Amino acid sequence: MRIGIVGTRGIPNYYGGFEQFAQYLSEGLVKAGHEVFVYNSHLHPYQEKSWNGVNLVHCYDPEEKIGTIGQFIYDFNCILDSQKRSFDIILQLGYTSSSIWIWLFPKNVPIVTNMDGLEWKRSKYSKPVQLFLKFAEKLAVFFSDQLIADSRGIQSYLKEKYKKDSVYIPYGANVFKNPSKTVLKEYNLNPYKYDMLIARLERENSVEEILDGFAASTVNRDFLVIGNTKTSLGKKLIDKYQDSRIKFVGFVNGIEKLNSLRYYSNLYFHGHTVGGTNPSLLEAMASNASICAQDNTFNKAILGGDALYFSSAEDVCRLVESVSKKDTEKSILSNLDKVSKIYAWETIISQYIVFLKDNLKK
């Protein structure tokens, strides 16, 4: 198949979850013998025309000059370019700034959309933006030929809200087997003597709730915060927590580094409340992390009974003071088993290949 992938800032990943997903999926598709094109922002640090056999198409992206509205122009440019590529099928990752242009995709080419999470629920957005995102979601649902849900919760939502069927294919991860303590020295950490979180520093990821709980504790451990501190909430958090135990280290590039930090952490906090299967959660499961997750249906659908849950800063404080990694060994092993049997990238990529081929036949 000749496959186009739109909707991300590009690969290799320097940005976030969808970029990470596009990186693994496109590389896997190429290894399976397919021709894959991933659209990249012209601002992407990697400027070559291919990466590990994946073709890269750099399109003009004015976001750096004009802000968020630039994402719409970037997606517009990507979709216009797709008209001349003779794709067999196009995979659209998300819909936030691309679905208003969905009618410009090439005719007679199946459009498959991974619906991501409930973007309009994100608290960082104003009411008018939330209304727009609901509209964008509706466009993506009705103008896509097929829908992919990365969680059972999203699949149920699409069925109940729009009476539309979707195929459930989650994100993937690979069991992490080669931890390195070198990265610990970089951040002046000791094995199992720190708790951590990895997230966009936004309200719906419970970052402030988690840090309030940790700051109220009396433990003699560090807390590592990995995420872009240049956001408005990020700057606020740095000002708020004058606690020498809490370390804001910004964005950390490199999956091996991140997985080693997860591996040697004591407790790993996952505060995401909006969306489906979060890639960082699967990677934490694959990295021997002892997971404390925000108590919601999306997280429970993946973790089940193999995690500790919190719903308030008080819960976080209690967990930090009463639980250590050695207390959760059974859950850690169970999560590793899930990754190897259900969420392994090889399995996920095979599911995508079968699904895309079926769509072409139809």
Briefly summarize what is shown:
This protein has 362 residues and is an alpha/beta fold.
Spatial extent as radius of gyration: 20 Å
- Report the major sheet: 8 strands, mixed
Strand content: 15-25%
- By DSSP, the count of extended strands is 14
Q: Per the principal axes of the C-alpha atoms, what is the gross shape?
A: globular
- Describe the strand arrangement of the main beta sheet, using strand numbers: 3-4-2-1-5-6-7-8
Please work out how many helical segments DSSP would assign.
Answer: 14
What distance lies between the first and last C-alpha atoms, to the nearest angstrom?
A: 14 Å
SSE ordering: EHEEEHHEEHEHEHEHEHEHEHEHEHHH
Mean pLDDT figure = 93
Q: Which structural class is indicated by helix and strand composition? A: alpha/beta
Helix % is 40-55%
Low-pLDDT runs: none
Secondary structure blueprint with pairings:
Layout lengths: L1 E5 L10 H15 L3 E7 L8 E2 L2 E6 L3 H4 L2 H14 L6 E5 L17 E4 L12 H17 L2 E4 L2 H11 L4 E2 L13 H5 L7 E5 L8 H10 L5 E5 L5 H9 L5 E5 L4 H9 L4 E3 L8 H8 L4 E4 L2 H7 L4 E3 L2 H10 L6 H15 L1 H17 L1
Parallel strand pairs: 1-2, 1-5, 2-4, 5-6, 6-7, 7-8, 9-10, 9-12, 10-11, 12-13, 13-14
Antiparallel strand pairs: 3-4
